[in-house]
Design goal:
The complex is a heterodimer. Chain A is an alpha/beta fold. Chain A is built from five helices and five strands; from the N terminus they run H-E-H-E-H-E-H-E-H-E. Chain A has helices at about 5-10, 35-40, 55-60, 80-85, 100-105; strands at about 25-30, 45-50, 65-70, 90-95, 110. Chain A has a five-stranded parallel sheet, with helices on both faces. In chain A, strand 2 (about 45-50), helix 3 and strand 3 (about 65-70) form a beta-alpha-beta unit. By secondary structure, chain B is an alpha+beta fold. Chain B has five helices and five strands; from the N terminus they run βααββαααββ. Chain B has helices at about 25-35, 40-60, 90, 100-105, 115-120; strands at about 5-15, 65-70, 75-80, 125, 135-140. Chain B has a five-stranded antiparallel sheet with strand order 1-2-3-5-4, with helices on one face. In chain B, strand 4 (about 125) and strand 5 (about 135-140) form a beta hairpin. Classes of the chains: A alpha/beta, B alpha+beta. Chains A and B meet through helix 2 and helix 3 of A and helix 1, helix 2 and helix 5 of B.
């Protein structure tokens, strides 16, 4: 699924990297726990999280995650957005809760990440 | 015989600085990419170094990280000035945590740091028995 399609499905505009909308993503991982992202994510995913601080971006950077969806209407501050821009990470923000966001993406063909365990 | 180190990187880590936490690991990643090291090795080094770096930020009085690149492996050393890890076996148990609320707000402190490091590295040595500093040596082979 392209970032453009994710954006249209959730009816939201990207906050960063609007030029990356043709990046294709097959898998998703949803968590507010960055240690789980670090431990389990093995392939290219979109990260769905309600955690909007700088460590979310650092975690994405460490795992080569190209797109983050912030849920529950949360919008990160300028420092977080700037770090995402520096790392070419696309940020999307939705007012949907995590469950609904995952449901919408799953029913449109995005698969759950294949985890390391 | 003393082994030749190809490259050595050093970063100081400040206790409690959650904004800068992860910066050293970010720089380590960039350096390894410039050296043309494979993605799967870089990802493993990043997980180990980032968890170790956040451990220093969250749990210690401060310290440093060192990365040494040898012909056959990468060694990451995370050293702090204390306090010591009282029970290393317990600290390696998934879910055991002594982290503060501040660490939890950052998405850490679920008791997965050291277990993640152990699972990611080929070799892990934790030295926290002498005095009150902790030195963690992580090795990842090519």
């Amino acid at each position: 699924m392209k970032i453009r399609e994710i954006k249209e499905l959730l009816n939201i505009e990207p906050i960063t990297c609007s030029d990356k909308q043709d990046v294709d993503i097959k898998y998703a991982f949803a968590s507010d726990l960055m240690s789980d992202v670090l431990a389990l994510v093995n392939n290219d995913v979109v990260l769905i999280t309600g955690l909007i601080n700088i460590q979310t971006i650092r975690t994405a950077e460490m795992k080569d995650i190209k797109c983050i969806i912030f849920v529950r209407g949360k919008v990160p501050d300028e420092n977080v957005i700037e770090l995402a821009k520096q790392n070419d990470i696309c940020i999307l923000c939705t007012k949907q809760i995590m469950f609904n966001t995952c449901g919408l993406l799953y029913s449109s063909g995005l698969q759950g990440a294949e985890i390391n365990k | 015989m003393i082994e030749n180190e190809a490259i050595k990187l050093h970063y100081d880590i400040i206790s409690g600085d959650y904004l800068k936490g992860g910066e050293a690991s970010s720089n380590i990643k960039k350096a390894l990419m410039q050296l043309g090291i494979g993605n799967s090795i870089i990802r493993r080094v990043c997980v180990a170094s980032y968890e170790a770096e956040m451990n220093i930020v969250i749990h210690s009085y401060g310290g440093y990280m060192e990365v040494k690149i040898y012909e056959d492996r990468i060694e990451i050393i995370a050293a702090d000035t204390g306090p010591e890890i009282k029970d290393i076996k317990l600290a390696l148990t998934e879910g055991y945590s002594t982290a503060t609320e501040g660490a939890r707000e950052m998405g850490f402190g679920a008791g997965m740091g050291l277990p993640n490091i152990k699972n990611t590295c080929d070799d892990l040595q934790i030295d926290s028995a002498h005095g009150d500093n902790t030195i963690i040596t992580m090795k990842i082979y090519f």
